[in-house]
Description:
The chain is α/β, with parallel strands linked by helices. It has a domain at 122-281: RecF/RecN/SMC, N-terminal domain (Glutathione S-transferase Yfyf (Class Pi), Chain A, domain 2), CATH 1.20.1050. The chain has helices spanning 36-44, 121-124, 127-141, 143-166, 176-212, 234-244, 246-252, 273-276, 279-301, 318-327; strands at residues 2-11, 14-19, 25-29, 67-75, 80-88, 92-95, 98-99, 112-115, 219-224, 263-268, 271-272, 306-310, 333-337, 348-353, 356-359. It has a six-stranded antiparallel beta sheet with strand order 2-1-4-5-6-7. A six-stranded mixed beta sheet has the order 8-12-13-3-14-15, sandwiched between helices. Strands 9-10-11 form a three-stranded antiparallel beta sheet. Helix 3 crosses helix 4, helix 4 (143-166) crosses helix 5 and helix 5 (176-212) packs across helix 6 (234-244). The longest helix is centred in the middle third of the chain and has 37 residues, at 176-212. It comes from Yanshouia hominis. Residues 3-354 form the RecF/RecN/SMC N-terminal domain. It holds the Pfam family SMC_N. Keywords: ATP-binding, Cytoplasm, DNA damage, DNA repair, DNA replication, DNA-binding, Nucleotide-binding, SOS response.
Amino acid sequence: MKVTQLSIEAFRNLREIDWTPRGGVNVIYGENGQGKTNLLEAIWIFSGAKSFRGAKEAELIPIGGQQAGLSLRFSDSYREHLGKLRLGEKKEILLDGMPVDSLPGLSGSLCCVVFSPTHLNLIKGGPAERRKSLDTVIGQVKPRYLSVLSEYQRLLTQRAALLKDAQMQPALLDTLDIWDEALCQRGALLTVTRKSFVERLTPIACEIYRGISTGREEFSLRYLSSIESDGESSRETMKKLLAERRGDDLRTGMTSVGPHRDDLEVLFNGISARSFGSQGQQRSGVLAMKFAESALIEQVVGQPPVILLDDVMSELDSLRRDYLLHRLTGRQIFITCCDPGQVSGVDALFEMKQGCLTGGGPLG
């Protein structure tokens, strides 16, 4: 997959940009606060995911402005596509001229992998960050997964409301089995899909981490499910656990088991990375996971995703930088940095200054 043109009317601090990137390694350099990350975010939005910085849609509109406007031309192995996005009082999302209900509706069209400093929370942060990361990448290769996830979250909210109301109206408990059946159906599918994805991701990430660390440490991933089954289906196990813990759920007003309680454990040499990993190990571990995502997406969809690397190279020595870029040969890559001299094998160099983008001529 390749981005062929990005046009921006207004997006954060970026205004009136008409950009034609190259097919290989594109470096966007400049001082901090000039808009480099905003440019990557503008591409990422068309993957169907929310801002990789956790921003709300209103925050993507320029300060003092009324709306944000973007269009992106991108191609896959079959054809060129055109996505258009307008946020503000009048929200509009189009893909190839057809309206799309919401950003997740774009999932599966443009596949991207992004790494930014905020992704260190994949190790340092709580389980919610890791679940969100898994859901985002799975949603790119299996768009239907996001629909199931949305249905599960809706049912989870409705069950919580029912648990609280039932404390005052016990008769409502008669309907709880119906809600549990629907919740278990979606929850089991989410759990099985996540576990299968992690099983495929782990050996790829381990191999990449060995290359980054030059074989000094072992890296592994483990999906921790709250509905681990012992010979039973995940659906039946979840149903049984919900019945066993119904009293606790009624007291707390929350659902105590299900994929919303699961976690992805990251380990170095068999020890939890969250508790004992150094900052260097954590950064390398997240990079290994992200680059493994790229390889797995390519396996599933049959073509490489677009790679977005935000302020990554400054924390790596030259050997690790060269190793990672070598792993990404044949992909379109966008790299932001302050010093373009840190990146080798560049196909196009662009400077970002006060929200304006210049450069991009042939190098050498």
